[in-house]
Amino acid sequence: MGLFNRRTPENTAAVATLEVDPALAALTGDYVIDPAHSSIGFTVRHAMVTNVRGSFADHEGTLHLDGSDPARSTASIDVKIASVDTGIADRDGHLRSGDFFDAETFPLMTFRSTEAAFLGGETYRITGDLTIKDVTRPLSIDLEFNGSATDPYGNQRVGFEGSTDILRSDWGLTWNAALETGGVVVSDKVKLTFDISAIKQA
Per-residue pLDDT tens for 74-108? Predict the structure, then answer.
C-alpha cells in the first residue's frame, strides 16, 4: 500500500494523476523513533576480503509524515557516536578515538532532512544534511515503507527500512593502513543501514 496510487486516464495516456490513499493520509502526524525497536548500522570492507558490521545503540529522532503529500514529510536523527558497537571492544575504542570519529570532541552524528520524494510502489527518498565531525554534506536515503500497525499498548507505529552508500573520507574519516599484499585495511566506501520503527504522538 503506497502513499499514492498512480492512475492514467484512459483518454490521456501521457498524463498521470495522483490519488491519495485515505488509509495512509490518516497516518499524517508527528512520530518519535523508538530506539528499542530501531537500528542504525553500517557495513565496511576490512582488509579487502570481508565485511565488518556495526551499529549505534544510542540514537533518537523524530519524523513528520504527510500521507497526503510525502514531499512535506521530514526527519531528524541524532546518533551518539560513543554508542558504536561492532562486537569487539578494542575495535570500538579505536572507532571512538581521534583516528576515526573522535567521539569526545564530536559526540553526535546528525541528520536533518531537506527534501522528501515518492519514488513509486513503497519506496521513498529522503534527502538531507548528514553531519559527522562538524562536516556537513548532503545525503540521500532510499527507504521502503513497511506499513503501519497498532501495538499491544495502543501505540500507532510505522516502519521504514533502507540504506545508502557513502565515502567516509567525505566526512574527514581518513585513517587507514596499507596491506603488504596491496590495498588498505579499511575501505573508504561504507554502507549505512536504517531500520526504523516510530510511534505516533498524540
Answer: 999 999 999 999 999 999 999 999 999 999 999 99
Cβ atoms within 10 Å of 103's Cβ, excluding its own: 21
In this structure, the strands spanning 84-85 and 108-120 are unpaired
Task: Decide: 112 and 129 in contact? Cβ < 8 Å.
Answer: yes
Pairing of the two strands 186-200 and 29-33: antiparallel
Per-residue pLDDT tens for 117-144?
Answer: 999 889 999 999 999 999 999 999 999 9
> Does position 153 have pLDDT exceeding 90, yes or no?
yes
What are the backbone dihedrals phi and psi of residue 92, each rounded to the nearest 5 degrees, phi first? Answer: -60, -40
Nearest C-alpha neighbor of 191 from the set 162, 159, 149, 151: 162
CA atoms within 13 A on the CB side of 111: 22
Nearest CA to 132 among 112, 116, 114? 112
Largest CA distance in the chain: 67
**Given a cut of 70, is residue 11 above it in pLDDT?**
no
* % of the chain residues with pLDDT over 70: 90
Length of the chain: 202
Degrees to nearest 5, angle at CA 34 with 30 and 37: 140
HEC string for 57-113? CCEEEEEEECCCCHHHCEEEEEEEHHHEECCCHHHHHHHHCCCCCCCCCCCEEEEEE
